[in-house]
Specification:
Length: 217
């Protein structure tokens, strides 16, 4: 769990910039499929009745716009389905456990070799050059082993998405904290959410207007 958490926290893709809380669920998350710029929340032009509604539009030049409420609902439905599928999957298998045991044994052996080198240098059995060469080799081995252990852990540990069937109840646009929670779940499940061209004059949202690439469980 520790190795998986470290791998997640140091992932540079997590640094999306900005420190303020967004009031729109997918603002800064969904991207334009044409130019890959992030989409931001805005408002439509007034209709014949003088009403406006929330929209997401490409920040790179309004390549694509989409009704926000219907897109939010569509993405949340897809996230709930995928999260439930993830949590139903087996967490590990015997092959992974065997590989982990071997790597842990190698990690222990490399650490012990490193300690032994330092002790040999302290009593004068080896010189500084030999110590540096040995330490560098042990450190390289440990880096490789720990990266493989982190890979195993990240693949095995399930994403704790809680009771995803209640995700709808968290979608409160008046509470930025609850929107942040739902957005976090969306970003855990989705690698990429893209707006697709809707065609000239098309206003109604259709499933083909959004393309979601899910992360591997």
């Amino acid at each position: 769990m520790f190795r998986a958490l470290v791998r997640y926290l140091i992932d540079p893709e997590r640094n999306t910039g900005g420190g303020g809380k967004r009031k729109a669920l997918l603002s800064g998350v969904v991207r334009c499929s044409k130019c890959q710029a992030v989409a931001t929340q805005g408002w439509s032009k007034k209709n014949a009745a003088g009403e406006r509604y929330r929209i997401y539009s490409c920040s790179g030049g309004r390549c694509i716009t989409c009704p926000a409420d219907t897109l939010d609902s569509f993405v949340v439905r897809k996230v709930i389905g995928k999260a439930e599928e993830w949590n139903a999957a087996p967490a590990t298998d015997a092959a992974d456990e065997g590989q982990e045991a071997e790597l842990l044994a190698e990690e222990t052996a490399a650490s012990e070799r490193r300690t032994a080198l330092a002790e040999m240098f302290a009593v004068g059995d080896i010189d500084a050059s030999t110590l540096r060469t040995g330490i560098n080799r042990c450190d390289a081995d440990l880096t490789k082993i720990r990266a493989e252990l982190a890979d195993l852990a990240a693949e095995r540990v399930r994403v704790d998405l809680g009771d995803v069937e209640y995700l709808w109840e968290e979608l409160d646009y008046e509470d930025p904290d609850r929107i942040d929670y739902v957005r976090t779940v969306v970003m855990q499940v989705c690698e990429r959410v893209e707006l697709m061209p809707r065609g000239r004059g098309v206003r109604a949202f259709k499933p083909g207007h959004c393309r979601i690439t899910f992360r591997n469980p």
